[in-house]
Amino acid sequence: MTRPNPKVLKHPAVQIGIGAIAGLVFGLIVGEWAANLEFVGDIFIRLIQMSIVPLVLSSVIVATASMSGAGTGRIVVRTFTWMIGFSVVAAVLAWALCTLIKPGTGMVFDGTLDPTLTEDAAETTGWQDTLRDFVSTNVVEAMSTATMVPIIVLALLFGVALRMQITKSGDDRVLTFVDQIQQIVLTMIRLVMHIAPVGVFCLLAPLSGDVGFSVVTTALKYLGTTALGVAILFVLFVVVVTARTRLNPWRLPGKLTEQTAIAVTTTSSAVTFPTVLKNTVEKIGVSQKVANFTLSIGLTMGSYGAVLNYMIVVMFLAQAGGVDLTIGMIALGMALAILLNMGTITVPGGFPVVATFLATSLDLPLEAVGLLIAVDWFTGIFRTFLNVNGDTFVAMLVANADDEIDRDVYYERKAVVSEEIDVAEYADAIASADAAD
């Protein structure tokens, strides 16, 4: 009889999965009594919520103020154009699929938002009012109510101004100070995540005790919607790449097999990055110059699976809580999903922080967040699969425009060797990639 590997049991995702399954089973067995545990789950969510405002504020300032303006030219423009374009497509596709499939409608509960966290968002406003509310007259009040968009606007402006001041004076002490705040908040989140298995157990037990077995079918609909969206986007990538490059698409699966296997087994774009860079040069034929730039940018900006998943989270929480999203709220949800993908809003605390951030930003109920956390390992597989292979596809599109694809390499008539990479050089991008996965 084989014994379970103790290292596997120590993995946070495994522990959260065990806590989630135990919570679901416990709630189904004891029924409504499980509601007595809800306060523990609420504490777990609040511990994450209290870190979101300082994390977003410091992360956006650091990300914006750190941009030095290096790297110009056609490769840069084409890389960003393709990445942002596919990110927009991913967000729109997620909205369309959720509108058709309605993954969150199987779960109905009478949950209300924490009144100490957000204002009531029942009033419907026009798009002009929505845009006007992006700028707050009292940022302190916005912080106290976790109204995220005005906070992001402030941080973006502050970051741009700080970048200008650093360029003018050469003094980066303020940036260093803000970066230290960011690191401290991230340490706080890591500490909170140690109790995630208990928190998820106490979130799901009351939920399954109240809703019953439909909580399981709801989770399957959420996973099914995500998987379908990933499949559609992957096919779209292949169609666009084939149309633009005129390369034989039937050769692609064999060239992507190795990096796909690593991606789905590790659920980490960062771990897969060296293999992606090597294969993109040696098997696809993309030039080293284009591959180095495009794939390194793709680590932080090319998380198309993440954009798709984040928008599905928005729609799922709204449908589960019976919230009718206005056009302005849907557009804001898409914008936030894309900003998260672009690395402008850095939330390396993982999916629980992302889901809570999105719910808080759009005034959506938080009760179903625990269910999403419970199945995040599976969605992580879908996200990483698309993130990793999407980066290779974008590199092909960028390289094709400047005739930087060696077709002899693609058709295996010629062999090239990729340069060895210094992993430390990509440390920041790798950290952001892990967050998106």
UniProtKB/TrEMBL annotation:
Keywords, alphabetical: Cell membrane, Membrane, Transmembrane, Transmembrane helix, Transport
InterPro entries membership: Na-dicarboxylate_symporter, Na:dicarbo_symporter_sf
Compartments reported by the entry: Cell membrane
Transmembrane segments annotated in the record for this chain: 12-31, 43-63, 75-97, 142-163, 184-207, 219-240, 297-318, 325-348
Entry GO CC: plasma membrane
Molecular-function GO term, any one: symporter activity
Membrane disposition: Multi-pass membrane protein
PANTHER family xref list: PROTON/GLUTAMATE-ASPARTATE SYMPORTER, PROTON_GLUTAMATE-ASPARTATE SYMPORTER
Name under which the protein is recorded: Glutamate-aspartate carrier protein
Lineage: Bacteria, Bacillati, Actinomycetota, Actinomycetes, Mycobacteriales
